[in-house]
Amino acid sequence: MTASRPVRRDPATAVGYWSTTGWDEPAPALRGATRADVAIVGGGFTGLWTAIHLADADPSLRIVLLEMETVGFGASGRNGGFCSYSLTHGLANGISHYPDEIEVLEREGLANLADLVAFVRSEGIDCELEETGTIDLADRPSQVEEFRSFVDEAAAYGHRLELLEGDRLQAAIRSPLWLAGLRDGPDRTVLVNPAKLAWGLKAAATRRDVVIHERTRVTGLVRRAGGVRVRTSGGGTVDAANVIVATSAYSAWLRRLGRLFVPVYDYALVSEPLSPEQREAIGWRGREGLGDAYNRFHYFRQTADDRILWGGFDAIYYPGSGVGPRYDRRPATFETLEANFRRAFPALSELRFPYRWGGAIDTTSRFTVTFGSTMGDRVHYALGYTGLGVGAARWAGLVLRDRVLDPGAERLDLRFVRSAPFPFPPEPLRTLSVTAVQRELRRADERDGRRGLLLRTLDALGMGFDS
Fold it and tell me: Do 411 and 399 meet the contact criterion of CB atoms below 8 Å apart?
């Protein structure tokens, strides 16, 4: 396998800007029958990290990874590249759902991010890693007050945040829109090119003798004596002692997982390169990852080649939990994103956005990853990162490794790992309920953050619709 000749992909139909360069050829598809100690379904971050953790723990294992398209095809290669320490979708969400474990989960998350950065460096993975930290931005007085309150709340958990206002804010980012910012450090968020990180993990797994088959769609699992048979659309099979399901937003193929998550589509734009004059007009010399403080929030960052990635705002659910290439482009959302960008950065009114794409995020009702096992504890899964899987997937891979190799591991006793989120209803109630929640989140944004009865009820039930 080589990366010597770039592969150009059409941003209108494929992953988009991140994937304009990649491997020459995908790994060969599975043909015929094979055996494995562990078969992994899914070539995104969860599957790749789990393969690496397993191989490092026991190099004698035969590990086979199956990916329906190419490594990084799904959310792992399409996201904005914000790699957060948080395992709980932010400190506030963690306090809400896991008050008894939040201190442990914070420590685990910080250690996980530090280990991820160390691994990238030790393996020589060229994923454009930048240790910049983040700034959250407020454009309403009520949001500024929330920022002030959260500085004190976070400090109680050892999380130091810096409130930026006035000249200090304008020194960080020049825009007439925002009133205040919350700066967080690079020990809690780094920026990466996510597609290059996925390809780097693929190479690291291959060096550990993990067998990877791309263009190999798994169609079903069959319990057999001593293990599970994995069946693929090409007629190939893998007989494995254990199976890891790591297909995130594409997990409805395994029926029991469909009730645990909904796939929602997120969309992003990437600009042409900034001129020196455009860069000077907006400041942003710290290159932090930025985001605003709404329920329907934007996230944005600079890329390694001096473009701006601007994404978020709309989170679109397609009835029937629809996923697939036909949803990758949504002109109405692209127009909204571009209009909102120009409101935030009027000095960049002439900047064009040649790259635009979308991808599915797997969302649980508590906004955090969920774990489980089935088929006599031979099949293990993790899904539901709700947009924060770039970092959290590495930690999830440790959980999945322990489920296979060390069922008595201490981390498996965490309620965060053992408990399951409130399930989503079947259709047509699923579409109705998701639509109702999204409508109420939009209304809350329009009413200065005040949440209506539906959202307050869901909050009381611990269903986590707070972002």
Answer: yes
> Would you state the structure tokens that stand for residue 230, as one six-digit string?
């994995």
How far apart, in whole angstroms, are the C-alpha atoms of residue 91 and residue 153?
10
Give yes or no for a contact between 287 and 302, defined as CB atoms under 8 angstroms apart: yes
DSSP, residue by residue, 231-277? EETTS-EEEEEEEEE--GGGGGGSGGGGGG-EEEEEEEEEPPPPPHH
Say which amino acid occupies 67.
Answer: E
Residue in 390, 401, 466 with CA at minimum distance from that of residue 85: 390
Among candidate residues 76, 54, 82, the one with its CA nearest the CA of residue 204: 54
The answer to whether 313 touches 334, Cβ cutoff 8 Å, is: no
Question: Rounded distance, CA 270 to CA 302, Å?
Answer: 9
Q: Give the model confidence (pLDDT) of 276-317 as tens digits.
A: 999 999 999 999 999 998 878 999 999 999 999 999 998 999
Cβ atoms of residues 396 and 49 within 8 Å: yes
Q: What is the pLDDT of residues 365-395, one digit of tens each?
A: 999 999 999 999 999 999 999 999 999 999 9
* DSSP label at residue 337: H
With 0-12 / 13-18 / 19 or more C-beta atoms within 10 angstroms meaning exposed / middle / buried, residue 98 is: buried
The Cα 459–Cα 442 span in angstroms is 16
Q: How many residues does the chain have?
A: 467
For the stretch 4-8, contacts whose Cβ atoms lie closer than 8 Å and that sit 24 or more positions apart, written own/partner, are none
